[in-house]
Write a structure and sequence with these properties.
This protein is α+β, with helices and mostly antiparallel strands and 168 residues long. The protein contains 5 helices and 8 strands.
């Protein structure tokens, strides 16, 4: 993994044969992170009692090899009635012809950082979800069944069509 700002870049096999990477980012400044599962969960702890959660802080671990995780720590204290808006972004980023590296063993993060910057703009995530909803409504709205069973309607009108499109 590589960490830059509020982003964790996962690059398994990127150096050898892949031209894409995974990104876990936050649109807010983070207070810590972990990328090693052993550091976050603990060697003998189960997933129900992560070591870092029980300790109250991540260790800023960097995974070298197998068993990576992506964990962001945010220390947030709000006054009564106060609000703060931020989002976590999980993305697949294809380099699409960009150079893979900025320096030896340092990946080119341009596209990933642009993605996080785009969704850091107020309202951008709501706009993206609205556009996604419109896309799927248009795609799935061509065939609609109306039966006495609402469960069957939901299965036929949404889930079966979605599964056909996503596995096609």
């Amino acid at each position: 993994v590589e960490i830059e700002g509020s982003c964790i870049f996962h690059k398994t096999e990127y150096r050898e044969r892949r031209n894409h990477y995974a990104l876990f980012g936050c649109t807010r400044k983070i207070d810590g992170y972990d990328t090693s599962r052993d550091a976050f969960v603990g060697v003998h702890n189960g997933l129900q009692d992560p070591k870092a959660v029980l300790a109250g802080a991540c260790t800023d671990s960097v995974a070298h090899g197998w068993n990576p995780v992506g964990v962001h720590q945010i220390n947030l204290e709000l006054a009564p009635g106060a609000t703060e808006t931020f989002a976590f972004i999980l993305a697949y980023v294809d380099q699409e012809g960009l150079p893979k590296f900025d320096a030896p063993y340092v990946m080119n993060k341009t596209r990933g950082l642009e993605l996080v910057a785009r969704y850091s703009r107020p309202g951008a995530i709501d706009e993206a979800f609205a556009a996604l909803g419109k896309f799927w409504s248009g795609l799935l709205g061509n065939l609609q069944a109306a039966t006495p069973c609402s469960h069957l309607d939901r299965m036929v009108n949404t889930w079966n069509q979605y599964q056909c499109m996503s596995t096609f």
